[in-house]
Sequence to fold (288 residues):
Amino acid sequence: MTPAQKLRDLLAEPGVHVMPGCFDALSAKLVADVGFKVTFMSGFAVSAARLGLPDTGLISFAEMLDTLRNCCSAAAKIPLIGDGDTGYGNALNVQRTVTEYARAGAAAVMIEDQVSPKKCGHTRGKDVISREEARLKIRAAVDAKANADILIMARTDARAVHGFDAALERCRDFEAEGADIIFLEAPETEAEMRQFCRAMKKPCMANLVPGGKTPILPPAQLQDIGYKLALYPVMLMSSAVAAMQATLAALRPGAAEKQPPSISFVDLQRVVGFPDYWQRETQYKANT
Fold:
């Protein structure tokens, strides 16, 4: 079964699906190995992990695509949605992004309507392209998937720029153009979240960022509102940063801190796959 078909089947199931955000092969593997049914490659987290820079359009299409290949390979047993940012250019660039993300193994690609260079959805300084251009970009993405087995997630950031009603109109446009999943970024109240989900026929995604603009609601409440996907894009990244900072503090000369919790070296070998490698290696050892 293809990644896209796995995601279609998942979206057809009842209930909301929690979706941790990954940013490299190891984080993608961890999400898949502990039993989550879907993951999302976050542009914010990839930019931070790969470049050590903010999610402000600094990372390139080639860098994102390279990371996507690694993440899809590591999380192969579950579908992965790839952050395609603005599509890295005009409508024809969007079509190439869709095609290449499908070839890399993504089940879906997210395309947004920000101007370039884009910004993280829960930070300041955002702007969006015109409603008509946004609609045509999603039309181009949907046209491109005719020759690529991949779903299209259409995202608008217009809530922060033009208000909720304008953002909802863009979501209706995206649905009319054939997008498979609709994402209204950064609604500011539960009432807005409910109004959005009621207005859509296609599956909707919620983006949960602690300290961001959208209320952090439990999955059961998100399900009641009508969401199908609940994305936690930077929780793994935030946890990893906290753990690394604590370990570095403990390693400083004269530090009083005890070594922070960590897995053993044996467990680390297991996580990255040494035991399986050693077992398979024996099948091909020549007799000496």
